[in-house]
Amino acid sequence: MKSRAAVAFGPGQPLSIVEIDVAPPKKGEVLVKITHTGVCHTDAFTLSGDDPEGVFPAVLGHEGGGIVVEVGEGVTSLQPGDHVIPLYTAECGECKFCKSGKTNLCQAVRATQGKGLMPDGTTRFSYNGEPIYHYMGTSTFSEYTVVAEISLAKVNPQAPLDKVCLLGCGVTTGIGAVHNTAKVKEGDTVAVFGLGGIGLAVIQGAVQAKAGRILAVDTNPEKFTLAKEMGATDFINPNDYDKPVQEVIVELTDGGVDFSFECIGNVNVMRAALEC
User: Fold this and answer.
1) pTM for the whole thing?
2) Is 171-274 assigned to CATH 3.30.450.40?
3) What CATH architecture is 2-168?
């Protein structure tokens, strides 16, 4: 079938909106119509050419929401019409990693996903007869994409896909860091550095965990309004102080926070988060 897609033909090149060919789903695969997709910094990182696992040409995108159009042989958990979120962390539930409960490096896709291929080692995308690679097992920058059944999560059809598409990466990254990694408890004090999508998700997770104080840290004060709506209790702009922000936080919290979350990817900010 034909599908419009934003294709990354090479590193550092702008995405090109073209019509590609999408092959039908094979065994264990699902054809999904993508209705909404987010744009994550990881997509931009891969497009820049700095990603060592980046392969081109490819259909990027991994924060999507869509509707099942067709299922391949052997698919039992989904049917046409189901609303789904593509997941870059597959879960077959049968390999040793899935059964261990310690990791999400599912063996069913581990050897192929980083190479831009489906689990069987081939691709479902092509353009002018030439193969186009997949991305993170999701490729949500296409109207239609083929995804492994084990890389799809069925969601309530009442949930708006323009919102739940963000659960594919940013929201779960932030909330998961609170609940699964830090294990924030009721009454804890947390600091959140960077109030982008992931930082706001961390705030949501901290609220769910009933944190006592949630310090929102950003150099852009315009972000404080939304952070407050999400549940942050304190707001700190490092530019307002003549001392390192970690010292400010230590003073405000009687010796430091219980947990700090660096949601930017900046080495200098990481140090501040570590020292507060």
Assistant:
1) 0.91
2) no
3) Alpha-Beta Complex (3.90)
